[in-house]
Amino acid sequence: MAQLFVNDIKFLRFIPMKKKSEAPSTLLELIQGIGIPSVLRTDGAKELHLGKWNDICDDLGIKQTITEPYSPWQNHAKINIREAKKAIHRLMTRNKTPKAPWDYCATYVAEITCITANDLCALHGGTPYEMVTGNTPDISEYVEFIWYDPVFYYDDTPFPQGKHILAQWLSVAHQVGQAMCYWLLTQTGQVIARTSVQNLTLDELFSPDIKQAIHDFDISVHDILKSHEIRDDNPTSYLQDVYDDLDEPFDEKLTMPEQDEYPDHNTYDQYLSTHVLLPRGDHF
Predict the structure, then answer these.
(1) Is the pLDDT of residue 276 over 80?
(2) What 3-state DSSP class applies to 199?
(3) N- or C-end of the chain: fewer Cβ atoms within 10 A?
(4) Domains of the chain
């Protein structure tokens, strides 16, 4: 599982977890990496507004608000989780990725979203990362590799002759080593961090020996990680637990219902005390 932090300009911070009780640690990681948010809006989950989470917010002066039950449209994270799942599904299906490293793919998707400009007016042509941190994003770590690219990394054994070893590129390892350090998946199913990474050339990609090595690598990794068959003719048969809600109609799930849809709008009127925003020039 994971904790996703998001704001209204599509700044995403994806932090994997093994259990729900680790939620306060993800909040601390967000604060250490990005800064202290002024307001946090969460749903009614206890781990997101009680206990250690609440202590952290109290100590740092973070205002907390909770969404109304059965009102998912009030939580921006719901929409962004859905969009992130779509992107994860596309990347993992296209590259026939085993399910196990899904969290690395999700981290990669969140980081790419943050450093990519979109058409939101509030960004004024910038990126979510720039608007939140005030710094221009450095994209040099992302331009050479994409998710699950076959790459070579160099091993320093046997000394002094190093050798290049085949691996699959997962994401940037921000907290290991220096700049340009990456997470790689090895043929034994291990995840390692290395800076000595290079892409395969076109000649290497079309080489029969390298193509066979990549095929053997995929078979080995899928067997070790106990995933589904690598060459599945129906790629959507796996990753079902990752994108189980992709087929649900967006409007029925995450938009506010019309007033006439309430059985008794006299006693439950969702639109009372709301404000109408009218455009004034180029802004609301």
Answers:
(1) no
(2) strand
(3) C
(4) 2-124 (3.30.420.10), 150-233 (no CATH)
